[in-house]
Amino acid sequence: MSAALSYIKKNSPIHRLTGSTKFLFFLIWSIAAMITYDTRILLIMLGMGLVFLRMSKLKWKELRFAVLFMLWLIGLNLIALFLFSPEQGVAIYGTRHELVHLFWRYSVVTEELFYLFNFMMKYLAVIPTALLFIMTTDPSEFAASLNKIGVSYRIAYSVAIALRYIPDVQRDFHEISQAQQARGIDLSKKDKLVDRLKNSAAILFPLVLSSLQRIEVISNAMELRGFGKNKKRTWIVERPFQKGDYIALLLALFMLLASGACMILNGGRFFNPFL
Predict the structure, then answer these.
(1) C-alpha distances out from residue 182 to 120, 169, 177, 199, 205, Å
(2) Cβ atoms of residues 244 and 13 within 8 Å
């Protein structure tokens, strides 16, 4: 089973960027998406993100699990927003154009649909850069890059270990799941949802135990090697900034400035086409 949300080595312009560049790009890009509800900016960011994904040479089968899982979470958020605040778009945009009345206080309103669409776009604009950051950044190189921009090497190394740990957990989960199914525990879609949730405990408990055991082994190995004794350390995979890194950071800053400029022009975070 191929691991989802883990580093995949390829030869692409995105992979050749330093880890600190991709981290700063993701951070600035996320801020630009968070501070605005301008549909035009969010659509541009989504389009550029899809272009970046294409440039990374990552295949759909490598992205499918993460993308579908994120879309599922977004769908749950949209449903919850509509259930708890079906007129939020009306309050924001100041007009009300009802399309269909459903029941009680729930109606399909154009302003609410537009608000939910923009809410969804905020997530979609960030997802490509998040996937690129996780799946095109070597954990060791990323730790070196974080240390280069001023982050303590202890914290940087902890982040690298966490990133390396993701595929290990996925592999353990798959192996434990197969072992439990071989013992007769049904985890397929044929069984009832409640029974499947109960049977999942047979996987989670040994998974937690194996994770704790791995943590103890790693911590003992680091302690025996004197990790953290010195204030500084060297990195074998450290790379200097190149032309592509500066271009990427300038592009992220440009989108942040464009997002801020749209807020000023719109008189707030929301682009209102109903005026």
Answers:
(1) 41, 20, 9, 13, 17
(2) yes
Give tens-digit pLDDT for 59-104. 988 888 889 989 999 999 999 999 998 989 999 998 999 888 888 8
**Which of 114, 87, 107 lies closest to 275, judged by CA?**
114
Tens-place pLDDT, residues 192-240: 667 666 767 777 778 788 877 877 887 787 777 777 777 777 777 667 7
pLDDT band (50, 70, 90) for residue 113: very high
- Look up residue 264 and give its two tokens: 């000023």
Find tokens 């708890």 and name the residue.
84
Structure tokens at 31: 């801020």
pTM: 0.79
Structure tokens at 11: 């030869």
Distance in angstroms (rounded) separating the CA atoms of residues 81 and 90 = 13
Angle at 219 between CA 20 and CA 4, to 5 degrees: 50
For residues 11-43, one letter each, b for 16 or more C-beta atoms within 10 angstroms of the residue's C-beta and e for the rest, the string is eeebbebbbbbbbbbbebbbbbbebbbbbebbe
Helix (H, G, I), strand (E, B) or coil at 208: helix
Residue 109 near residue 132 (C-beta atoms within 8 A): no
Residue 205 exposed, middle or buried by CB count within 10 Å (0-12, 13-18, 19+): exposed
Dmax over CA atoms of the chain, in Å, equals 68
User: Can you tell me whether residue 107 is helix, strand or coil?
Assistant: strand
Distance CA 136, CA 15 (A): 5
The amino acid that residue 27 corresponds to is: L
d(CA 157, CA 230): 14
